[in-house]
Design goal:
The structure is a single chain. The protein is mainly α. The chain folds into two domains: 100 residues, no CATH class; 282 residues, ABC transporter involved in vitamin B12 uptake, BtuC. The chain contains 17 helices and five strands. The chain has a three-stranded mixed beta sheet. A hairpin with an 8-residue loop joins strand 1 and strand 2. Helix 2 runs parallel beside helix 4, helix 5 packs parallel to helix 11 and helix 16 packs antiparallel against helix 17. The longest helix is centred in the first third of the chain and has 27 residues. The chain is globular and about 65 Å long.
Length: 422
């Protein structure tokens, strides 16, 4: 007698719905593609859109007629949506979705860049630099939330990291002392979060918001009482140096972005791979995921649930604090009140949009960074598209992702739930 597999039994018993998620995505992509071809293709002037492989208008460039490119990439999005709708490649669902979205973006860019130029190196480098603190903040959230602790205090960790980087970096006249101090600043806020959420069982969202307000008040008070009175002694940290890797930095587009940059960029990208490997291939990762999904079961096999949560929250605080150093050691040369401007909450949105995974968080952070960089570029070239609309897109995409329209988005089962040992 033949034995049916689990998949066959599931397919036999599960109700068949015609308008499942795959077909809905297909319809959405077809609609976007048709709109792009019709609207962008009509509005785009018949001029050449130049995407230069440098930071200015000189040098080699990828050129295409603006109107033709807008229509062409719109039709590519239609094709990707039609493939999803017809289910011709079910195993390539995610790939088709990415192709369709990228084609829609390229159609939009062909319209906007027609008769102008877009420097790819500057755009890519700006995207990565804007996304840099978001990557580190989202990674901090991944580590904490995969073990069951919601980290809404990323904003406060950013602020403390930026403040300590500026203060200690200036007093020690060392950028490395500032970077290490930024991590310590993040650990301070993370320690308070861990004690309140794990030891005293305070609602984790509430304590995170309170810690953000606490960090805003403390750093603002110390800035006015200490830094503002003697800027030279307390608020002029050295800038993080830019390092170039010989040979690799001369690779077109990628070289100047990845191999001619500051060390914080390399740290952030390396941490994405390290955290991913740690969560999926190590004992620490297995225990972290077990504690985040079913802490009671983890406790019964000898895992110290609270101890592991303490450790992970503190590790995440150090990473987020290092992300705060970006604001004072890379983006600017001094600390200002509330200078993070809500970046911690954007990192939290990137964490959710990235489905609580390191590479997902990286992709979401880059998406946010690209939207902000594109808004800056379009404002500079006098685009009729409001920059506020582009800045809104990442949040709209996050809402769509959380609603489950582009895939199942599920937080760890025990995320935000305090653990009390029975």
């Amino acid at each position: 007698m033949s034995t049916a597999t689990v998949e066959e039994l599931t397919e036999a018993t599960a109700p068949v719905r015609f308008w499942d998620r795959e077909r809905r995505l297909g319809v959405a992509l077809v609609a976007l593609g048709v709109a792009a071809a019709a609207i962008f293709g009509t509005l785009a002037p018949g001029k050449t859109a130049r995407f230069t492989l440098s930071q200015d208008a000189t040098g080699a460039a990828l050129s295409i007629n603006g109107a033709f490119g807008a229509v062409l990439f719109g039709l590519v999005a239609v094709g990707a949506g039609a493939a999803l709708l017809a289910r011709v490649a079910r195993r390539w669902q995610t790939t088709l979705l990415v192709i369709g979205i990228l084609a829609f973006v390229l159609s939009f860019l062909c319209w906007q860049v027609a008769g102008k130029f877009m420097p790819l190196v500057d755009t890519a480098n700006g995207t990565l630099q804007v996304a840099l603190p978001l990557i580190l903040g989202a990674l901090a959230g991944v580590i904490g939330e995969r073990s069951g602790v919601v980290n809404v205090a990323i904003e406060g960790q950013f602020l403390f990291g930026a403040f300590f980087a500026a203060l200690i970096g200036t007093m020690a006249t060392s950028v490395w002392a500032g970077l290490i101090s930024a991590a310590v600043g993040g650990v301070i806020i993370a320690g308070m979060l861990a004690v309140m959420a794990i030891r005293f069982l305070v609602d984790q969202v509430v304590v995170g918001i309170v810690l953000n307000l606490f960090a805003t008040g403390v750093t603002g008070f110390l800035y006015e009482g200490l830094m503002q009175t003697n800027q030279k002694a307390y608020n002029q940290p050295p800038a993080l140096p830019t390092w170039s890797v010989p040979g690799l930095s001369s690779i077109p587009v990628i070289g100047p972005v990845l191999f001619n940059t500051n060390v914080l960029t390399w740290i952030a990208l390396a941490l994405v791979f390290i955290v991913h490997f740690g969560l999926t291939r190590t004992r620490w990762g297995l225990r972290t995921r077990a504690v985040g999904e079913h802490p009671t079961a983890a406790d019964t096999v000898g895992i110290r649930v609270r101890g592991l949560r303490y450790m992970n929250v503190l590790i995440g605080g150090a990473i987020a604090g290092a992300g705060g150093a970006y604001f004072t050691l890379v983006a600017t040369a001094s600390f200002q009140k509330n200078m993070t401007s809500g970046a911690g909450f954007i990192a939290l949105a990137a964490l959710i949009f990235g489905r609580w995974t390191p590479f997902g968080a990286l992709g979401a952070a880059l998406f946010f960074g690209f939207a902000q960089k594109l808004a800056t570029y379009l404002s500079a070239v006098g685009s009729p598209v409001p920059s506020q609309f582009l800045n809104m897109l990442p949040y709209l995409a996050t809402i769509i992702a959380v609603a489950g329209l582009v895939g199942r988005v599920r937080a760890p089962a025990a995320d935000g739930q305090p653990y009390v040992k029975s």
